[in-house]
Each structure stands twice: as C-alpha cells, then as structure tokens.
Amino acid sequence: MTRQQQERIAPWVLLVIVLILWEAICRGFAISEFIFPAPSAIIAKIIEQGPLIAGHAWRTFWVTMVGFGISIVVGVLLGFVIGSSRMAYAAMYPLMTGFNALPKAAFVPILVVWFGIGVGPAVLTAFLISFFPITVNIATGLATLEPELEDVLRVLGARRWDVLMKVGLPRSMPYFFASLKVAITLAFVGTTVSEMTAANEGIGYLLISAGSSMQMGLAFAGLVVVGAMAMAMYELFAVIEKRTTAWAHRGAHS
Questions:
Q1: What string of DSSP letters covers the chain?
Q2: How many domains does the chain have?
Q3: Distances in whole angstroms, Cα of residue 86 to Cα of each of 144, 149, 150, 153
Q4: How far is CA 92 from the centre of its chain?
Q5: CB 117: neighbour CB atoms within 10 A?
Q6: In a domain, 64, yes or no
Q7: Which pLDDT score, from 0 to 100, does residue 254 have?
Q8: Per-10-residue mean pLDDT for the chain, 254 residues long?
Q9: Is residue 120 part of a domain?
C-alpha cells in the first residue's frame, strides 16, 4: 500500500475506531439513550426518521449554500480591494478583524427584528460567519506578492492592474480554495445556530425540538447529518483545489 493510499484510508480507520470505542463505552457502562446515545441508536434513529431528517437537512443545505455563495462574492471583491492597495490593507484589515471577533450568534436577534423568522436570518448568519476567511486569504495572497517579481513586471511594461489580474489572482488561488474549505464548515455552523432561534424548520430547529422532547438519538442524528454535509462539501472543494491548483502542491506527497 502506497503512502497516498494510507493517507486516504487513515480518516476512515480513525472514524471506525472512534465509533467502536463509543459503542463499547455506551454498552459497557449501560449509558441511557436519553443521556448519550450509542452510534447504533443514532443510526437506527436516522433510518426510522429518515424523511423527517432529510426534509430539515435539505432546508439547512440550500440555505447554507445561498449564504455561502453570497460570502464568496463579497469575500472575493472585498479581499481584492484590501489586497490590491497597501493603504486599503492598513485601513480596513484591523476593522475586519474587530468585526470578525464579534459573536455572530448575537446578530441573530437583530436579524430577526429586521427580517423576521425564516430564511433571511439564516442566510445572513451563514454569510456573516463565512465571508471573513475568504476575504483574508484573497487579501493575503495579493498583498504578499513578491516585490522583486512586481518590479520585474513593471520593468517589462506591466501596469498595476496587469500584475494583480495576471499574477496576483492566480497566485491567490491556493489561498482561495483553502479559505473555501474553512468557510463552508463555518457556514453550516451559522445556519444551524440561526435555525435554533429564528426558524421553524432546518437541522437547528430539529435539534431544539428533539432536545426539548428528550429525543437525544434524534438530536445526535441531526448533528451527524450536519457534519456529513459539511465534510462532503469540504471534500468537494479539496478535489477542485487539487485539479485546479496542482502546480501549488507539487512535491507535497514526495
């Protein structure tokens, strides 16, 4: 078995080990399902409540994708503005950092007042929590362009716009895809948190409903589904990254 094959199966092996230990602990100590359900109980609940969970999961998924799509557009544009100018970088980056430090869950009640209970707060929460990594990585990729390379291009007649578009943006692509893998997981977090307080459907709403009725198996099933969706999107962006920016990863597995 090659090194790459070992790396591919390593997460699955670790997952199986964790599930076996989890199941053994729950059975060995006779832990009640109302306290901490075993993996077998969670799987049984997913099968039993499949249509219900699927309906809530689909709502969470498409709402997250809408908010995430907005974050890509805004994050790329804002990152380009910040990274293309030293003055803009110095002026805006500290403010962006301060904004990112604010707990996004605190915005949910405000968004409910502005947009009411439903899709609006969930989409905007997903956007607010996920656009910052995209902005920072695009800005970093542009702002860290080697001065020597830029000087050479200027001598060859390239304008500032040419340097940014033909060198800066392609160079920022590895940063961009790295930010997408982080941002998509944060977007699911934002959507779920918003649904827990400002929605009548979605995985977040399902978690609150299941917890209030002491259906811990259903609550954990919702968590598993959210994690699975986030992992699937993460892997999708990882595959796209390898296919589009292979030049940036050459020799990584040597």
A1: --HHHHHHHHHHHHHHHHHHHHHHHHHHTT--TTTS--HHHHHHHHHHTHHHHHHHHHHHHHHHHHHHHHHHHHHHHHHHHHHT-HHHHHHHHHHHHHHHTS-GGGHHHHHHHHH-SSHHHHHHHHHHHHHHHHHHHHHHHHHT--HHHHHHHHHTT--HHHHIIIIIHHHHHHHHHHHHHHHHHHHHHHHHHHHHHH-SSSHHHHHHHHHHTT-HHHHHHHHHHHHHHHHHHHHHHHHHHHHH-GGGSTTTT-
A2: 1
A3: 10, 17, 14, 18
A4: 23
A5: 14
A6: yes
A7: 46
A8: 78 90 90 86 90 93 95 92 83 84 84 85 92 89 70 67 71 86 92 88 90 88 93 90 72 49
A9: yes
Q: pTM of this prediction?
A: 0.85
Q: Which pLDDT score is estimated for 95?
A: 86
Q: Residue 191 belongs to what domain range?
A: 38-246
Specify whether the CB–CB gap between 190 and 104 falls below 8 A.
yes
For the chain, the C-alpha Rg in angstroms (whole number) is: 22
How high is the pLDDT of residue 7? 75
Q: Count of CB atoms within 10 A of residue 21's CB? A: 11
Does residue 47 lie in a domain region? yes
Q: Is residue 111 part of a domain?
A: yes
CATH number at residue 206: 1.10.3720.10
CA distance 121 to 192: 11
